[in-house]
Write a structure and sequence with these properties.
The structure holds two protein chains of two kinds. Chain A is mainly beta. Chain A has one domain: Sandwich (Immunoglobulin-like), CATH 2.60.40. Chain A contains one helix and ten strands. Chain A is elongated, with a radius of gyration of 21 Å. Chain B is an alpha+beta fold. Chain B folds into five domains: about 1-180, no CATH class; about 195-225 and about 315-340; about 230-310, no CATH class; about 365-435; about 440-560, Immunoglobulin-like (Sandwich), CATH 2.60.40. Helix content of chain B is about 40%, strand content about 30%. In chain B, strands 1, 2, 3, 4, 5 and 6 form a six-stranded antiparallel sheet that branches. In chain B, strands 14, 16, 17, 19, 20 and 21 form a six-stranded mixed sheet that branches. In chain B, β8 (about 250-260) and β9 (about 265-270) form a beta hairpin. In chain B, α1 runs antiparallel to α3 (about 145-180), α3 (about 145-180) runs antiparallel to α4 and α4 (about 195-225) runs antiparallel to α6 (about 315-340). Chain B is elongated and about 100 Å long. The two termini of chain B are about 25 Å apart. Classes of the chains: A mainly beta, B alpha+beta. Chains A and B meet through β4, β5, β7, β8 and β10 of A and β16, β17 and β20 of B. Chain B: Pfam families: DUF3592 (PF12158).
Chain lengths: ~140, ~550
Amino acid sequence: MKPANDRPSLELDGDGMGVPGGVLKGAVRGESPIHGEVRLFWSTVGRGTTDVEVVARWPLTQGSHFTFVLPAAPVSFSGTLVGVEWALEWVDGKGRAVAECGLVVSPTGCRVELPKVEKPAHKKLKTIFHPFGTQG
Amino acid sequence: MSWKRGRTTKATSAGAGCGVVFGLGWTAFTLVFAVLVLQHLRKVMEVRGWDEVPCQLERFEIHDEPDDDPPFRAEVEFVYQVEGRWHRGTRLFSTSSSESTRDDKYSDLVEIRELAKERQEAGHLNCWVNPSDADEAVLAVEEGELGRALLMLLFVGVFVSIGVGVTVASILAMRSNRARTAGAVRRKSPVRKDRGVRVVAWATSVIGIVWVISFSGKWQEALNARSWVKTPAEVIWSRVREQDSDDGTTYSVDIFYRYTYEGQEYRSNRRRLISSSSSGRASKQAEVDAHPPGQAISCWVDPGHPDRAVLERGWVFHGVMAAVAVAILLTSMGCWWRVLGGPSDGDASRRLRENENRKGLGREVRDGSLRRRWTSLTVALLTAGFWNGLVSVFVGVAWKAWKGGNPEWFLMLFLIPFVGIGIFLLGAVVVQGVALFSPRYGVELEKVSLRPGEDTALQWMRTGGVGTPRRLRIWLVGREEATYQRGSSTTTARETFFEQELFATEAPLRMREGRLTVTIPAGGMPSLRTPHNKLRWFAVLGVETPRMPAVLDEYEIDVVP
């Protein structure tokens, strides 16, 4: 088994956070020659079936460094049913995953937490049917 | 991460378990029918493998015996030669006995007799001889029997496939639920369409095609019957025919009559284009009593085939079967439209922005509430009709048994929850029907696409409906939606992450029309639209009216980053 520092990896500049609309830089580390591409993508997590969208690709044809411009949305968030996670994936020339790392894309630097409204008032209307008049 | 990755619920696992049990039961039940059809098919195929040998028809007599059942008996005798030896055969079909063939339709036997005579005159009448036993032979292979048997096998096969599909889908769902609980994250690049919708699309396509093929001949005959000729006839005999089945005894009217067409006498006992039997002997006996031997009546004769005649040319049954075929085929078309890519929610955001650009000011007057109510009523009607139609068959069986003094208690107890659901669905139809008349409102949004922190004007006005509302409220609502597979069906869960009441009034004038400003919170999450996961924002208008279903109309706002 290879030592941890010899395994292929993705490293991000700075604190590894991303700001919507900002620039994300980093580099891949591994045995040369470095080839393949780095993919920036987000995926949904939670109760719903997972959806994935690859936002951008950076071919590693001129070195190990990559640069992405992050889109304005979606940001990393978690809700009761739905959440979004961002990640970078290094794939080789045959499309096989070599390394992966997650990142948080958020204007505040932290994943956005969506609250849950326990008993929405507008939903109560649905069950109201008073044959002899409304009450309350 | 603070939220729960891969969370599943006990209800999800229990639902998958129920799906497995249901699927296995369904498959076992339909396999019984499949086995019966296969046995019949084997019998049909067996004779078709026999040797076709020229033969000579010596006798073909049809006797009517009203005291027997079936009342018409055909006796045939034909001779054929195999390897220099002559043999005599007396069997008409492979399913006939060696002495005679019985049928409850006189015209069917006449048709076979005339066809045999025709072929004999043309010099190519053949019989089918068992290659293993030259003494065993049949004169006729039932025309169309192979096709009917194959169609029936295909039809039953669809139902068996549904059972297998439900079982497999439920097992896969149970496995994926366990994987989620263990924390595994699945990533799928291609987005797959609903598997369940594909299954329904294929099943309804096959069922619809089989249905149409099975009934196309009957529909054609019903159309042709409009040109049949009314001809005087005379009753030879009449009786009430009893048929015993697992559901009990049913009765039908059997009238054997003669008529003359273009100088030639014919006989028939065909009363309608499609024969049927039902419970209740008294009404059938009354009709038989009204047609004693010798009674003068009228019949409708096919001028192209004078041996075909009926007493009544009713088409109600054909209409019902045609309506069922249309419903099945429409369902199939709807499923294929969804599978092959009808409009999805993913396009809604783009359409909203396109509308905004096209209209310039981005104004939209929305009064889709009436269309939504009609859609809800239609769905409720179809669901209640389908459910209660199915359940009524079994309720009818239980009712007949109870009336006959032999109640089936287990069946009656088993039906209670199904009848309860049927009554609930009927209630839903009533509620949706009343909702059509609830007050209707149109909402105008100055902009339908906003950024966090931006605001827009919202105007509402009453556009129709009856009743005096008691209260009107408007909210800004943010909602999560997650779509997932549960067993073989697709389910969408919804949770509200933001709700702000913008307006509430009980003043009638203010309820009739008004205007307010909707502001998206500065930190509000932009809308998200993926095939299975969504964040959506709505302006929600809620109206409570005494003695009517509450109105809750949603108007989507696209929040862009």
